[in-house]
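REQUEST FORM: STRUCTURE PREDICTION
Request ID: SP-0412
Submitted by: Lab K.M.
Chain count: 1
Length (residues): 162
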Amino acid sequence: MLFAPFMPSVFYSTDTFIPVSFKGIKWLDWENTSPPSKTYYGIPLTSIYSSNYVENLLAIINKILLHSSHSSPYFNFIIEAVLHGGASRTVGRGFVVERTTDMTKLEHLITEFIENFETQSGTPEDRQPEEVVASLIRVHDRSDAPTSSTFGFDGNCSWAAI
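STATUS: Completed
RESULT:
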C-alpha cells in the first residue's frame, strides 16, 4: 500500500470529480492529452483525501516534465483544496519541480502537506461546513523566466558585474 506509514484515516476514497471554478486555462483530460503549452493553467482533481490523490498528482507532474519542450523545465505547483461552499484554501505551500527533482522526496512533501492541512482543519466532523470536495493544481511554467544570473544578481542582495 502506497500510504502504509501514515494513518489510514488521512486518505479515503472520494474519487468523484467535482467541477472547479477557475479563471484561466483548465487541463481537464490529463490522462489522455498533453499539457497545454501555456505558462499558467489549472488542473481540477478529486479531493486531496482521495485514496490515489498523491499517485495521480505525481503522474501529472511527470507527464508535464516529459512533455516540456524546455531543456531545463522549471515549474511551480500550488495545491488548493476546494471546499463545499466553493471557497479554496492552499494546501501546504507552493513547490518547485524540475527534471532533477527526487519524486520520492516530493511524494513525502505532498503527503506531509495533506496531513498538516487535515491537522489544521480538525476532524471530519468538525469541518463539515468546510468539507474538501475537490482540488485544483495551479501550474506555473517558469522555464522561460529570467534567472538571477541573467540579470547579474549574485544571490547576496548585491549586483554582480556583468
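NOTES: The first helix runs from residue 53 to 67.
Reviewed by: T.R.
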